[in-house]
């Protein structure tokens, strides 16, 4: 089953939505390169739909995400009444298609990076709640634009969040939550003397399991993540302070300035001092 990954931030943004009620014999219109994402959620009956070489018979409680640059079409007319919500949205960055995996390995990302991942077609975990959200979003379309804009974006984001969380198997959700807890702990204590032993004491799991969880979500072990996060914090201090390399090294948790410099050069390709100098103009750092 294919997954569609959308980089965030920036978040996808809402365009419009609605509700359609088909009767027996009705078909979904054929469209090519619509230029926006088309998200469909079935609340009654069956909708027979295709995109390029894929075909689906979407039933109550299922959804499909049609891509902006593909050809989608009706496979055959509805056999009986079919009701569904639709929603158009757009993104700033292009999507990525990949085959579903039990534990998707992601490329190592910086702490502020994320992505929204949806099955292109799937079953909704809580269809009643999603139908309620979608109905509220549809009602906002007839409200005053100045009043509805932010609420529409909020509800649209909640719909995406529901689908993003809902497509994860329970075991995968546990792994993802543990990895996020480890990440948060590292961010809170990165300047401390963090070791595998301390993480074991905090989370009560074998260090190998902690490493597997982090690798499955972030593509690195906890200690690799720790070093990368310390480097990111040191970059901020290099730009926003005139502290010595030795002091910055200590502030972000490195015991030795030489080891810090080696790690920094390995990640950034420059020494800490060279990194700082490229942002200095007339002997003064850029203002904070």
UniProtKB/TrEMBL annotation:
Keyword Transcription set for record: yes
Gene3D superfamilies for the chain: Homeodomain-like
Domain (HTH araC/xylS-type): residue spans on this chain: 180-278
Keywords: DNA-binding, Transcription, Transcription regulation
Molecular function as annotated in GO: DNA-binding transcription factor activity; sequence-specific DNA binding
Entries under PROSITE patterns matching the protein: HTH_ARAC_FAMILY_2
Keyword Protease: no
PANTHER family registered for this protein in UniProt: ARAC-FAMILY TRANSCRIPTIONAL REGULATOR (PTHR43280), HTH-TYPE TRANSCRIPTIONAL ACTIVATOR RHAS (PTHR43280:SF28)
Protein name: AraC family transcriptional regulator
Organism expressing this protein natively: Paenibacillus silvestris
